[in-house]
Design goal:
- The protein is an alpha+beta fold and 165 residues long.
- It folds into two domains: 50 residues; 82 residues, Roll (PH-domain like).
- The chain is built from four helices and seven strands.
- The strands form two sheets. Strands 1-2-3-4 form a four-stranded antiparallel β-sheet.
- Helix 1 packs antiparallel against helix 2.
- The longest helix has 26 residues.
- The mean pLDDT is 91.
Length: 165
């Protein structure tokens, strides 16, 4: 088990922070496993049960997944966050861009999650929850250390604002 608090906090200086490049590798591997699984299922349906129609939905899903894999590195570059004096700003998206500013005092929960492949690549997802359902922010692709440092910084700053955590 890891220690819950990290030694240093992030500065609230308004600089953009990017996610880890390992996130792209992790997502590409997960998508590749999905493509292999779908192709195997379609192959079983065709060879064992003689259901040749299975190639149509399998091909569509595989094509969409491959397109997603091509776009993924550019999408990862568009994800970032900035800590300012009163809030954290999160951005994502290439075509449909989303930028959300969450005031520190409104934070109710800061959560770190990571699946098995994410753990293998050392990446985590940090989730911030507020009372408003539409302002919940998830920052994927943070290294474990960066996620813990960000979580600790957000908790520390939110405690000084006294309206959130």
């Amino acid at each position: 088990m890891r220690t819950p608090r990290s030694a240093s906090a992030l500065a609230l200086d308004g600089t953009w922070h990017q996610i880890s490049p390992r996130y792209v590798v992790s997502q590409l591997l997960q998508n590749a496993l999905l493509v292999v699984g779908i192709a195997a299922a379609a192959l079983v349906l065709v060879l064992v049960f003689h259901q040749t129609w299975a190639w149509i939905p399998a091909g569509i899903v595989i094509l969409i997944t491959l397109i997603t894999m091509v776009i993924l590195p550019r999408q990862a570059k568009a994800v970032g966050y900035m800590l300012r004096a009163d809030d954290i700003v999160f951005r994502r998206g290439i075509i449909w861009q989303r930028m959300v500013a969450v005031p520190y005092g409104r934070l109710q929960l800061v959560d770190i999650t990571h699946g098995p492949l994410d753990r293998a690549f050392g990446v985590s997802q940090l989730k911030m929850v507020t009372a408003a359902a539409t302002t919940g922010v998830q920052i994927p692709g943070l290294t474990q250390t960066a996620a813990e440092t960000l979580r600790d910084t957000l908790i520390e700053v939110a405690e000084t604002r006294r309206t959130g955590l």
